[in-house]
Design a protein that fits this description.
This protein is mostly helical. Helix content is about 70%, strand content about 0%.
Length: about 350
């Protein structure tokens, strides 16, 4: 088991840099100064700046709602995605591999809770944690610990817990319940990966920053992760906006009266809405027709399993990983949140 987890960073899709020289970088269509990252950035900026005129030009109220939801998801997610990408590049380029051997326990089972608790000191949402987890695996961190960090960081960092306290001023126990449940889910999933996970399920995308200077490699890593994570973020945001428009709001009122269905409804709602963890507490607080336990499920599931996160995990870790890890995380998050809610709430 130890051999399996310690070899998790040697993936078929990752370059070894031992026998083959780095391939030539492809020429860009727009020359050396304008590339896909710049085009993506320009489109997002224009979409935000001209949100009013664009919305006004669309006559259908449903299309206006779709545009509003899509832009809202992107505006919330992009700053934290950039933060995560930059931190990911710093980890990949400037942090020596020996650091992780000293910072984390050698035994993978002990490294999982340490990596989970490390999420407390890194403010950010799930958009940023995906590229960071990918860099940790590349730097030799056992995948179980990196995945535990991926799940814990968006849910238990100080910004999220403070937002939860502000959103639930009359229910301070929600802060404790959210932090405890999220931490338990992260550790359980890390230990499950140690037990059941396989290294070949993770296929990190190929990188071309081997042999470059540190500053050049840093910007190459930033551009690479923005293209991969940002592209899948757009796909996830589009899917979330589409489902948000299609699902009738009155269904929520009907489901709220059934304890079991209300839990499942808010769990699914957390997946399809794809709200960043810094903002989801205010949405949960507004769903006052649901029980506190149901809303706790919403807060625990959302930062760990949503459409944009599934899309980003597919882009960073591969389809085989996402199709196994996301459903398992969803089931564990629902069960743990219900259990913690029954005890604390």
């Amino acid at each position: 088991m130890t051999a399996q987890t310690t070899e998790g960073h040697h993936h078929p899709g990752a370059p070894t840099g031992e026998s083959e020289p780095p391939p030539e970088r492809p020429r860009r269509v727009f020359g050396d100064r304008i590339g896909s990252v710049e085009v993506l950035t320009a489109v997002l900026v224009l979409l935000v700046v001209f949100r009013g005129p664009v919305s006004g030009a669309i006559s259908s109220p449903r299309l206006q709602t779709w545009t509003t939801v899509f832009v809202s998801v992107m505006v919330q997610a992009v700053p934290f995605l950039v933060f995560g990408v930059v931190l990911s590049a710093v980890i990949a380029v400037f942090v020596p591999p020996s650091f992780w051997a000293k910072a984390l326990p050698r035994h993978p089972a002990l490294a999982v809770p340490v990596a989970s608790v490390a999420g407390v000191v890194l403010p950010g949402c799930e958009c940023g944690s995906v590229p960071i987890a990918g860099s940790l695996i590349r730097r030799g961190v056992t995948p179980a610990a990196a995945l535990a960090f991926l799940l814990a960081a968006p849910a238990i960092n100080p910004i999220v817990l403070t937002a939860t306290a502000v959103a639930f001023p009359n229910n301070p126990e929600m802060v404790v319940a959210r932090g405890a449940a999220s931490l338990v889910v992260a550790m359980v999933m890390g230990w499950l990966w140690l037990r059941l996970g396989k290294a070949e399920w993770i296929r990190l995308p190929r990188r071309h920053d081997e042999g470059l200077g540190k500053l050049t490699a840093f910007w190459a890593a930033v551009r690479h992760d923005v293209i991969h994570a940002g592209g899948f973020l757009v796909v996830g945001a589009m899917a979330a906006a589409t489902i948000n428009v299609v699902v009738p709001e009155r269904w929520l009122l009907t489901l709220a009266d059934n304890p079991v269905l209300s839990v499942l409804a808010l769990a699914v709602l957390a997946v399809v809405l794809s709200i960043c963890s810094e903002a989801d507490a205010f949405v949960a607080a507004s769903l006052s027709q649901f029980s506190l336990t149901s809303r706790l499920v919403f807060l625990v599931v959302g930062p760990m399993v949503d459409l944009k996160l599934i899309s980003m995990q597919t882009g960073v870790f591969g389809r085989r990983f996402a199709t196994r890890f996301s459903p398992a995380t969803f089931m564990v998050a629902v069960l743990v949140a219900v259990g913690v809610g029954a005890v604390i709430l």
